[in-house]
Write a structure and sequence with these properties.
The chain is α/β, with parallel strands linked by helices. The protein folds into 3 domains: 198 residues, inorganic pyrophosphatase (n-terminal core) (Alpha-Beta Complex); 106 residues, Diaminopimelate Epimerase, Chain A, domain 1 (Roll); 112 residues, OB fold (Dihydrolipoamide Acetyltransferase, E2P). The protein is 39% helix and 17% strand. The chain contains 18 helices and 19 strands. The strands form 4 sheets. It has a 7-stranded mixed β-sheet, with no helix packed on it.
Length: 566
Amino acid sequence: MPYTLCNLVPDNVKQELAQYDTWLQQLLYNRGIVDKVAAELFLQPSYEEHLHNPFLLNDMTVAVERILKALKQNERIVIYSDYDCDGIPGAVVLHDFFTTVGFANFYNHIPHRHYDGFGLSVKAVNKLKETQAPALIITIDCGTTDNEAVDRANDLGINVIITDHHEPKATLPNALAVVNPKIGTTYPFSGLCGAAVVFKLVQALIARGDFAITVGQEKWWLDMVGLATIADLVPLRDENRVFAHYGLTVLRKSRRPGLQQLLQKQKASQQHLTEDDIGFTIGPRINAASRMDDPEGAFILLATKDEAEAAARVRQLEQLNQERKIAVAQMTKELHQRLALLENIPPVLVMGNPDWRPSLVGLAANKLAEEYNRPAFLWGRDGNGVYKGSCRAGGGMSVVKIMTEAAAIFSEFGGHHASGGFSVLSEHIHNLNEILQDAMFRLGEMASVVEPVVVDQELALDDIKPTLLAAQKRCGPFGCDNPKPVYLLKMVTPQSVTVFGKSQEHTKLVFATTGMAKEAIAFFRTPEQFAKIPRPQEPLSMLVHLEESFFMNRQQTRLRIIEILK
């Protein structure tokens, strides 16, 4: 695994950041923070001082005036949100706001991933007109490109307010308002997630409306904004750093029975909740609802105040998450069986099955790309007969470059070098494999993207003291555009190397050290799967993260292995 070590902090930056210890100086410098003002903004995000005026967002004033009118006249409102771990928490924010101000004439609708697809559709508008008769539809985390559906709503006499964060096309939908930080030039930060955009709408409504809301009461809804900000992988800079920081603070105190019971079920400490808990515990279970079934269960889990209802939804999501794991395991087994029949493994793995759910193929593609060290493209068919798939990079090859080279066969595609999604024109589904292999052949080395791991600092095991851990904590939460620090440990000798877990699929190394981290672990990797096989009493070098675990109320400082180097 290629890596590059960050430069040491130059003397002029050391002087500028002299109030911080050397560990923190280095972490700040690695993140492009080289002066006192930027450091203070980064290390001390302020809800009162560091959030932008919501009325700077495109069409915000129009949206607020129309919603206030609807509330005053008790008009029927439909909240139409996306089905993922951004749209659903965003829907909870607006649901909670309406409930708090005493407005009840609204309905939350979440489209079905498999049968309805992404966004606001003509079919959905027609159905909502028939079943809900709304005067107003407010979208969350979708709608920016849904021109035809908005036109249909206008024809039916329904106003549409879009709140979203996705990239706009050349022509915006003819909605009453399109509130999106990527539209216009007045808003200073374009990186908000969908739930954050609707939170800004709520802030604006509170500012303009005459509501009996205690000042600062909206902060309790930051648990949903923080959850979505971290789960949706938006850049954790500017306002998003405020939302992630305070979102985690509120999540640790959240009174939502669904969240509390979900964390209890997973033996995760709510008091010590981290971004990793969102990524590995909460997020996958929220997304499992739409991947496997109706997403409404996830919405109710987060919105309900009823303990019994929350318990039922936790059981439901846990069952769906288990079904998801089983479905992906069966899919992966079938893929391995197919690959075993091949005389040679091709440069690109391209496989599919009309019976597979497109919402699951990305998880299996990730496993194949890692295992075979080459790009994997997998597809299934959704409830409307559309062939959709996901792709993951392997072997340093860019899936976006491959898809771009074969663009004519896709009705749509997108993503980044490491992963992406696509819809295949039906006439090309049977020769998709051949077309992508040819695209890879034509690209050759041009398909390669060398992205070395950026190493923050080289450490000795004995360096891992409370001061280092404290410096790292101050730089969190970590995520997109603020990656978790990576450390290089050279020539360290494990006392023991063991595997653990029900299927013996995890690895643990134990070290003798005066530092805080005496164990290094890797989940779902056995010793043979590293670049160098670790063995007791044999020196090795490795790239690691430093983390704190609070599993089953047991606090532990440990290392998470990224790679053991050759």
